[in-house]
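Sharing a chain and its predicted structure for anyone who wants a worked example. Both blocks are below, sequence first, tokens second.
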Amino acid sequence: MSTTKERISITQETEPVNVTFEGAVIASTKRALILRETGHAPVYYIPREDVAMEFLLPTAHTSHCPYKGDARYWSISAGGHAAPNAVWGYEHPKAGVEAIADCVAFYPDMVEIRVG
């Protein structure tokens, strides 16, 4: 779909992707994107409209990637449990990775991500 100096590739996942946290379905989509970046594990980016945003609480945490831009973060709160800064997204990503603009990603060690 897009590349940034061949360091990043973005492709469409062909299988459904579901994200759960403490038994709550946080995201369910057939439109996930897989972002592959040199030196990193693949990351699923899910359109926000397929995410139960009521489980996400914005935080003040931010980060910067020289290839993707500035990320903002959310914590997950469900079932009486919380996962701080477990979700991130790039609202204004850099050229070449615009496809992830209205998507969020989840740290796989904080949620369960099922594909298929």
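Comments welcome. The chain has a mean pLDDT of 94.
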